[in-house]
Write the structure tokens for this entry.
Amino acid sequence: MKKIYISIFVLSALTFTGCADDYLDVKQTETISTDDIELFNNDSGAKTFVTSIYSKFLDWDMSSFGWIGLASITSDDADKGSTPSDTGTDKDVLDALTYNASNPSAESTFNANYDGINRCNQALAILPKLDKADPALRERLMAEAKFLRAFMYFTLVKCYGGVPIVDHVSSIPLSAEDKAMQLTRKTAAEVYAFIEKDLTEAAAVLPNKSEYADSEKARASKGAAYALLAKVSLYQKKWQDVVDNCNLVTGYSISPDYAKMFRLEGENDGESIFEINGNGAVPTRGIQGYSNTQGVRDAWGWGFNQPSQSLVNAYEIGDVRKEATIIFRGTTLYDGRVIPVVSADDPNPRYNYKAYSSAYTSAWETDANIKYLRYAEVLLMKAEALNELGQTSEAIPLLNQIRHRAGLGDTPATSQSAVRTAIWKERRVELAFEFDRFFDLVRTGQAKAAFEADKSDIFPNGRVFTEGKNELFPIPASFLLLAEGLSSQNPGYPN
């Protein structure tokens, strides 16, 4: 009888989770035996392998507390929040940019994405064998798996630079070649090339979002593949590729109401290109702890990932995005919930509105979504690339389109340099708390100055961003221990 191994990255002897579970975790309330591949040799069975990949994004280690700390609390858009005595395990050192190779959030993010990549590889290995499933469905599912694998590798390369490229399910027992594959870091350029290959192949097969049934609108689409390709090109400063890929993202439009995009009524709307869907109702799942850890302290949440005063100051007068992004103490939310004022010296005066759930406010798993790719960002990416190509006059109308939706007038910027700065600022206020700001600061070279300027009661002189080090997070020490010299640490961090 054939057995399908759902493994989690490599060697599992130390901190990595088990190596051969006899089930495929699709939902929290559902497990499926995989003792015999024939059980899955149908359309429904084929879908389970890709459903399990999407399901990974709902896990605590993938999209919740560690990721919030790594990609948001580190930025100048957010402070640690909570209380001074509650470190959130490591959120204090992430806030201070003083983390090391044993940082739990860096480790959990690394492991979680490889867990997800493993599920992608599993799907890509098994789907071709399911000859009783519809061939077109299998091709689409394989394209979805490639998109999701590319998405996870993009997260990894942004966070850690070059990482191992694990492109297939390893042999059992582990061969020397597969061990080297899993434990040897590739260069960032090689990782980017691998991502581009996956996305190009996925885009050729995936349907447009409009071709999906309403129940499947959250699945990866052709537009998502091209939008992510554009973003991958943006990070490599391949400006013409950014423009070309943005032009291939069709069928989307700017939603008229910014605030409603982040409510239940705005899920998978006409602006949404790719988002992670949460559902607080049993038996489906929400993102574990996502809303709760960021919720109003002493009301329904822990109070972490507090919007910074620096972010508040970044909004222009009249920008509707400020009130749609930040919950302020003493205000009434769109659903009538009043946010109480605890005291004049409350350490938590602000909260992330985009993580708020009206229907499941205090639940551990809510209906809050994470919007990872929106058409507004496609316009901003195209504007940035056009400006860098010297086509500033063509970039300005795209920038203004985003500003007008926010209730603002045309940008006063006209020169290439001024428009560049205006686009960077627009990305900050448009995409706040959508996990872009830290990486934008790094890729644009603004990080050192931005952190020095990010002054607060905790950091009255700002924070020290060490160039040549803090551009990347440390490779987990637990991984390097397993690698036994096959991989080395990022600059500035001791092993």
Notes: Residues 104 and 146 are 28 Å apart (CA to CA).
